[in-house]
Design brief:
The structure is a homodimer of 334-residue chains. Chain A has 334 residues and is of the alpha/beta class. Chain A contains 14 helices and 12 strands. In chain A, strand 3 (122-125), helix 7 (134-139) and strand 4 (145-148) form a beta-alpha-beta unit. In chain A, helix 1 (8-15) packs across helix 3 (34-47), helix 5 (78-94) packs across helix 14 (298-313) and helix 8 (164-177) runs parallel beside helix 10 (198-214). Chain A is elongated and about 85 Å long. Chain A starts with 7 loop residues before the first helix and ends in a 5-residue tail after the last strand. The mean pLDDT of chain A is 93. The first copy, chain A, binds a DNA duplex (30 and 30 nucleotides) through residues 7-9, 17-21, 23-24, 27, 29-33, 36, 51-52, 54-61. Chains A, B: Keywords: DNA-binding, Transcription, Transcription regulation.
DNA sequence: CCCGGTCATCGAAGCGCTTCGACACCCCAA
DNA sequence: TTGGGGTGTCGAAGCGCTTCGATGACCGGG
């Protein structure tokens, strides 16, 4: 076992300077001569000093920890959520911050608690619903926050996400361009729409709105995640829409099933039915055939969320709304 | 915005007692008269007091935070990992602790850093490899830790997991009982075995060892996660092992593909091929047909890991190794 | 040669809490 | 009546850090 931990006092004594000098070397808040700085840094590394997080938080009123609020709701695709989460952790570290993980079961009390106890400096919230219970709380919290996703009413909030409406529209445009005039959107499970999850609804709205402008006819359906249900949905679709030749799939868990179902129903991709997905790159690449897709840039969104929250902590004014432009990548399925 | 936060001094003044009395009411470390306790608790709730986490950590040498070390390695099934993680967070809250999330990209330095800075009191590590780089570090860390999973050398560690060897054996026994004499194990992707991930190897060992005792012949193969690869693997298997009538699948992501592949290859489940899975309950239930399975008790493992780490923090002696007994649940696939 | 102004450093206060020893009080046994 | 042993409460020290004001050394200009 490693012994008692080294304090700033011991570093100061070892370097022959005052405690405050060590502190200023670390924070850079006052000028320190090159010579002194070097001596202090040497002492720090030979003694293996790490500032005590609690003491620092107490004296500076900053914990250097941000909370990541990650409810794991039914129907959400966990691997995608974790890519966001992972990106948030990595980005936070580049600002010398750590990440406290909050899940749903404590409800909004968890948010209130960690804010009031000064455990964290700020919040990043994921899996935002249109009418999210957490939102009113954020408005009168003394700590900054950023949402990944958009609730219905964004006044007073900072939100960041992929522009899902534009993504839906871009898929329609792509299929129209390829000459498809009857298409469908297979979206998230019904429960996700009912709950009012922003990204699902916005994609659908973008999809529907774009149909009109492009002279394409199409329907938007929710889509469950078991093979049997997908098979049935796809079967019904092909029966009801005889001319159907294009499919937009916005459901990571169902993508594989959709392709299997088409195969079993005797439709070739892309010859008989063209398929565009809205999903992370690796999901699209691992499918067979590899899917033309609009990339969900999880890493970029996570990084951007952290950048925004750090700017807010630094007192900067940040845009209320950050919508990342979708990019469609051509692969073998269209 | 909520105003400046309430301190213990204000609570004490409001209740007409000393600061230390408030502290003792909260910690229960000294006897306090019922009357005083009530007055203090009233003041706390009317003022909305929450102890300052940093101050508490500084004075008590306990941060009430545990670190969850969760590398997201290739080939791991993220939804299952997140069930463990989620269970850890929930369990930690029942001990009044929060969870700091550490990912892989900082490597072992992250562990060292948060330990040295007293940001956390203890560690729970997931996704443990047989020869894990984090293990030697844990041995000379001054903080307790618990591993979810078993490395090759467990001396000086505390580990908890499902007994995967017994699980593999139990699947063999179940199929043998049903009269199947030629079976196969489809496991994790090859990369997971190569990396030396304990649970994958132990299941395979348990499976192979049980074959001998039960007079069943069988093979164990790694299994990738794309449909095409699964289809090929299953196809090869049926061709090379003509008498094959039982399959054990220990790969959450491939389960669905295996069933699709069997269907496409004209085999009915369970009439032609019986399938047993090792996976969380919901995955087994959502498959079609619902799968007979050995449950991976993520919630229980997470809870147990937290219980162990809290016992260690409390100075109790805990068992080095906790192996949860597997339970096979009968469903429609065998 | 003295004065004002940097620059580099120091000392001390204070952040909000826990914990230790002290003490006042009360009850009961001697 | 006195003494001893609990109870219940208080005051103060101290946890390790940041930050503010003060100070000394050194510079160039008048």
């Amino acid at each position: 076992m490693t012994g008692r931990s080294v304090t700033i006092t011991e570093v100061a004594r070892h370097a022959g300077v005052a405690v405050s000098t060590v502190s200023y070397v670390l924070s850079g808040k006052r000028t320190i001569s090159a010579d002194t700085r070097r001596r202090v840094l040497d002492s720090i590394s030979t003694l293996g000093y790490h500032p005590h997080a609690g003491a620092r938080a107490l004296a500076s009123k900053r914990s250097n920890v941000i909370a990541l609020v990650l409810p794991l709701r039914a129907g959400m695709h966990v691997p995608v959520l974790m890519r966001f989460a992972s990106a948030v952790v990595t980005a936070a570290r580049t600002y010398d911050h750590d990440v406290l993980l909050l899940t749903a079961d404590e409800g909004t009390d968890g948010i209130r608690r960690v804010a009031a106890s000064a455990l964290v400096d700020a919040f990043v919230l994921m899996d935002v619903e249109l009418d999210d219970r957490r939102v009113p709380l954020l408005r009168d919290l003394a700590k900054p926050s950023v949402l990944i996703g958009f609730p219905a009413e964004t006044a007073g909030l900072t939100c960041v996400d992929l522009d899902f409406a534009a993504s839906g529209a871009q898929c329609v445009a792509h299929l129209a361009e390829r000459g498809h005039d009857t298409i469908a959107l297979l979206g998230a499970p019904a429960v996700v729409y009912e709950r009012g999850t922003g990204f699902a609804r916005r994609t659908r709205e973008g999809f529907v709105a774009a149909l009109a402008g492009s002279g394409v006819s199409g329907v938007a359906l929710p889509c469950e995640e078991t093979f049997d249900e997908v098979y049935e949905t796809v079967g019904d679709l092909l029966r009801d829409q005889p001319g159907l030749s294009g499919l937009v799939v916005h459901n990571e868990a169902a993508v594989g099933h959709v392709l299997s179902a088409l195969r079993q129903l005797g439709r070739r991709v892309p010859q008989d039915v063209a398929v565009v997905a809205i999903c992370p790159d690796d999901v699209a690449e691992r499918a067979s055939p590899p899917l033309t897709s609009v990339l969900i840039p999880a890493e970029e969104v996570g990084r951007e969320a952290v950048r925004l929250v750090m700017d807010k902590l630094a007192g900067k004014v940040v845009p209320m709304s950050t919508l990342l432009t979708p990019h469609l990548v051509l692969r073998a399925s269209t």
